[in-house]
Here is the input.
Amino acid sequence: MSDDSTSPTRLGTRAVHAGEARQQSPHGALTAPIEATATYAFDSTAELVAYFEGGSHRGEYGRYGNATVETAERKIAALDEAEACALFGSGMAAVTTTLLAILRHGQHVVMTSDCYRRTRQFVATTLGRFGVEATLVEPGDYAALEAAIQPDRTRLVVAESPTNPYLRVADLERLVHIKRQYRGLKLLVDSTFATPVNQRPLTLGVDLVVHSATKYLGGHNDLLAGAVTGSETLVSAVRDLRGVLGGVLDPHAAYLLIRGLKTLALRVERQNATALRLARWLEAHPRIERVYYPGLESHPDFTVARAQMTGFGGVVSFLVRDGDLDSVGRVLDRCRIARIAPSLGGVETLIEQPSYMSFYELLPEERLAIGIRDNLVRLAVGIEDPDDLEADLSLALAG
Ligand SMILES: Cc1ncc(COP(=O)(O)O)c(C=O)c1O
Here is the structure.
């Protein structure tokens, strides 16, 4: 069977074809089959011995690999222009396994303070218990980031771009330039909000990329998955630890992911266009105090985003003028298309108040201290007709 993942094609074509065999089955099936098995049988002890001697590429046990999962991995690697990809049962399984594979007791991590909060929680609490120290720096403060690096101890810089909910965009070339000055220092970027359609950090010199594939890569709000991409050397260390920690992706979810990935370019291009249009419309709306979208000139990272990204993504955050927790809640309640839910990147438009959805347990003053105002709304656009989405928001804001 031939695999066309090495063909020199553009991203939209790779999304459809890369990683998949031209002939998926002896019967000529066009789509990749779901290899629904937990284990793999050997015809004889001799075959088992040949396998352990490295003579054959085949399955052994589901925790170490599965053909459907590997098809999805080849496709994501091709999209991210990576040598390798390892898939996990969730974005957090990808993040935590990767960090555990790279970091040792006594080492130090520098991280931007607006990374996904569960990632920060894992670094601060779990890794902290295992003797890994972390320093958080404000997004956009490259001098502070460099000052936080301890040349003999810092092993990893962790950044995210764009971030939630203010869509801050890290200058990846600048981060790569900084990390190259320190031997052995690696740079990991969570690129979930960008997707390979809008940004390919590995091509800029980033060492490892993680994605919550639950979001745009899956794209239909019907699966949980996580991906890490990078060099074969780094990814194989992560893959080996995955076999120990066990956070593998189920082959059925891998099939849904492959299916979702085929339309990734179409969906994200649509989401980019709709989000930019709604961001501009919201910015001109009298009931809106401020809009955060990296495709707007008013965004602090507009220049970096324009140079680094081919689209600005599908998430728009905004402040409702004079709004409080209750009145903004009522705006969301009036939406008839956008659904109130966490997550982003699927075909359905989702809307949420971070004060409720992510920080319900905090007091108002604690939320303010971390920069979350009660009139903040995050809109994650889907692929619905943009006229309908604008009308939906218009009615909700008018109410
Ligand atoms: C930027 C980012 N990274 C990682 C994750 C974790 O992914 P998952 O929910 O698939 O575990 C999320 C989830 O919201 C996220 O937004």
